[in-house]
Description:
Blueprint: E1 7-10, E2 13-16, H1 28-31, E3 34-36, H2 49-54, H3 75-84, H4 86-91, H5 95-102, H6 149-165, H7 178-188, H8 193-215, H9 217-229, E4 243-245, E5 250-252, E6 255-262, E7 268-275, H10 280-289, E8 295-299, E9 302-307, E10 311-316, E11 319-324, H11 331-340
Parallel strand pairs: 1-3
Antiparallel strand pairs: 1-2, 4-6, 5-6, 6-7, 7-11, 8-9, 9-10, 10-11
Helix pairs in contact: 7-8
Amino acid sequence: xxxxxxxxxxxxxxxxxxxxxxxxxxxxxxxxxxxxxxxxxxxxxxxxxxxxxxxxxxxxxxxxxxxxxxxxxxxxxxxxxxxxxxxxxxxxxxxxxxxxxxxxxxxxxxxxxxxxxxxxxxxxxxxxxxxxxxxxxxxxxxxxxxxxxxxxxxxxxxxxxxxxxxxxxxxxxxxxxxxxxxxxxxxxxxxxxxxxxxxxxxxxxxxxxxxxxxxxxxxxxxxxxxxxxxxxxxxxxxxxxxxxxxxxxxxxxxxxxxxxxxxxxxxxxxxxxxxxxxxxxxxxxxxxxxxxxxxxxxxxxxxxxxxxxxxxxxxxxxxxxxxxxxxxxxxxxxxxxxxxx
Length: 341
């Protein structure tokens, strides 16, 4: 059984599809197995299936040989060629375009289109300007700043600037930061700064309270004595020079005693305040019965009885007051004490 030969046509030549060798086509039977590679099939030829399958493989693109290709001509080269060869310019000459270009209206003011005509020429003109003389300096007029708020504001601003220039406060020594000192104390005492703030505030309050308490110690003690004794007692507003309240205020039921002592020597006296129903006449009679001849004096609506040189006694609003002791006080001092109670 003979083998069937398949022919492929490529570039006008016939090749065996199996061996790839060039063969010649001599008979119609052989030509019936021929198929063009480019896909064009003759109407009289029927391609086999395996030939159609072969033509599905795409051939890779081939790079052109740059050495055989002429370099394209640039615009500059074309212009140079036209200038160097006038016959080229003559070959492309268009008479109708030249005629149309020559009859287009052009402005004579544009130097591009030729020389400017004399009818449209412009003449340069120069004009001199007189220089005014420098004005004479006029004397300044007196200005009332009260009626010129702008000038007043300028004056104030200049005053502020002058004060800032002469300021010396920035040269003073820098004040110490108390917060740093507080933090150092807190670290040494192993306490928090907030605790130090609370303690310092409480200490300040206690000091202030203690100061006022010391100043009013006598008044507080007198209030306590009045409550305990039931006597409406008083502290004398006048104190003889060199004498001060000595010791605590003594009190018992119906009686309060204040002791005073000299700051320089051993002199002393006491003021006794006790509840009593005596009148001035009864008090005078009582003193006379005790063998005392009192000196009767008036001071501030009060009747004061002075006896034994430096002792005194009087009655006011149901309270009997008595001053006695080795004080060597004179009549004027005794009257001042009685008037202040």
